[in-house]
Amino acid sequence: MSTYDLEGIRHVVFVCLGANCRKAGADLVLDELKAARKELDLKATVHLVRTRCMDRCDDACNVIVTPDTCWYGEVTPKLARRIAREHLRDGTPVAGALTYREDGQRLRDTGSGRPGKPLR
């Protein structure tokens, strides 16, 4: 097991590898993010994290970018490449692909994802 120095990291990207996201191509999405991170010279500023289920299975494959707290749904390898280029490198979230986004105080539905059940 490795421990990484996170000094200088600007974005942490969580990629869901739950069963439904894997069926939707999460492994390919993660591979594309890794390749884009290397090609765009983002290894010093972007840390990728594999997660288990994020409980947003209807939006599979799910990706979260922090500290911007942007949730992306239905991520494909092509969209992963756009997220790397536009959001992680250029600082502009890919608006049409966002399912949730923080408004400064809490997450807000962007209308792009499928509504889920409220947590109680």
3D structure, described in words:
This protein is an alpha+beta fold and 120 residues long. It is built from three helices and six strands; from the N terminus they run βααβββαββ. The chain has helices spanning 19-23, 26-39, 77-89, and strands at 11-16, 46-51, 63-66, 70-72, 98-102, 107-109. It has a six-stranded mixed sheet with strand order 2-1-3-4-5-6, with helices on one face. The longest helix is centred in the first third of the chain and has 14 residues, at 26-39. The protein is globular, with a radius of gyration of 14 Å. The mean pLDDT is 91.
Helix-strand blueprint:
Elements: E1 11-16, H1 19-23, H2 26-39, E2 46-51, E3 63-66, E4 70-72, H3 77-89, E5 98-102, E6 107-109
Parallel strand pairs: 1-2
Antiparallel strand pairs: 1-3, 3-4, 4-5, 5-6
Helix pairs in contact: 2-3
Gist?
With 120 residues, the protein is α+β, with helices and mostly antiparallel strands. It has helices at residues 19-23, 26-39, 77-89, and strands at 11-16, 46-51, 63-66, 70-72, 98-102, 107-109.
